[in-house]
Task: structure prediction
Amino acid sequence: MARYRVLEAKCGVGAGGMACGPVGGPIVGEIKLADENGKEFYLCLAEVDGIPNWFKTERSTIDEQIEEKSEEVFEYLNDHYIDIGEYVDVFDDPEAELYQACRYLIYLVRCERDQEEPFIRATVGKYLDEMEIPISDEEEEYREDMK
Result:
């Protein structure tokens, strides 16, 4: 299985809107990863109303997603959507190649906002398989349901 090193990480919250009543903005987490051969890519989790959306891209899109001002970014993301599924689908498949990267993003998106920066500082530059990723609320619920 490939090893991935976290080169960058970022999380942010979009403003939302009032088009059909009050709608919360997306919570977007993005990590730039490099495999052992140095090939780099971005993995992104954009959670909207509790629904995860996963994207694997060649460039960062987090700022454009948070600002929600560019139709081009949404077209680009549609072309780079990856069908990882709901959170439970991630936890059901610990052998998946991007399992730890997905857990990283789930934690980053679901943690308390004051925990984001310390987590990012502690993990950037490290390989995913060498770090302790805290259990998110979603993973905790999954584990409880599996008992």
